[in-house]
Amino acid sequence: MRNSRVLKPEILSLDKAYANNAIKHKLKKRKFNIEFQIKRMQEILNGLLH
């Protein structure tokens, strides 16, 4: 019973890997959204100027 609280290292490392992937995915998604917004703004500005 005493050892039941201790997590196995494999589980911890899998958890870390999952967390890192989730964070990377979020950052990639956010970066894509920002790039898309910048492109849209450039298109709008070009449309207004021409």
Tally the beta strands. Answer: 0
Total of domains = 1
N-to-C span = 74 Å
Strand content: under 5%
Mean pLDDT over the full residue set: 78
Rg, Å, rounded: 22 Å
Low-confidence stretches are: none
Describe the protein's architecture and organization:
- The chain has one domain (8-49).
- 82% of the residues lie in helices and 0% in strands.
- The chain has 1 helix and no strands.
- This is Transposase.
Secondary structure layout plus pairing:
Elements: H1 9-49
What attributes characterize this protein structure?
mainly alpha, 1 helix, Transposase
Summarize the entry for a quick read.
With 50 residues, the chain is mostly helical.
